[in-house]
Amino acid sequence: MRLTPLARFAASILLVVLLYGLLLLRVPLAVEMGWDVRMAWLGQNRLLWMLGGWLTLAGVFGWMAFLVALMHVYSPAMRVATMLQSGLMLLSAGLLIPGVIVWMALLPSAADGEWAAFIDRLALAFLGGGLFMAGTTTAWITLDLALLQKLPWLWLLPGTIAAALWLPSPFLLPTALPALIGLALLVGWFGFWATRRTLPPVYQELSSDLLQSIRNRQ
User: What are the pLDDT digits (tens) for 125-136?
Assistant: First the structure.
């Protein structure tokens, strides 16, 4: 698939995830809140909770799809670094997905506050590790492309900053403010790519040589 449609999909689905969580899931996601309040909400809004989980999984896919397309278009093929980045991306998803599923499937069935606290800790452990790996992967890819001079620094810097805000997640969760700011920046970064009518050429050095050749002929 082309890069721009994937950027539009990623920006759209992650924006929905961000707004859905902030507007509709504030109570069940408030781990520090008393379990009785959360249990009452989950008992009345189980479908909303499950839908939030599925939207988050779609958001993980959107993030992966855009980065895979970005690497496919601009990273030199068959590089060890590119293959390692792909593997680290899969590892990130392999932590994020179980964290979402554990929370989505098990929390509404928690019998008491102690069992709910165990589920929260398990889910947050997966999510914290997944966000750390996702931040590492995203930052590595963006910095790598910038150092290779495949893309302008300003096109990649927002993604790098967003990724850096995910790195402390294993140590900060359930305090999610840095991760939420990083997610908002990532939505803006994907939105920037989604609205570009033209993208930088893949082989900029060849394009520069061709342009110089045309000028010389004139």
Answer: 999 999 999 999
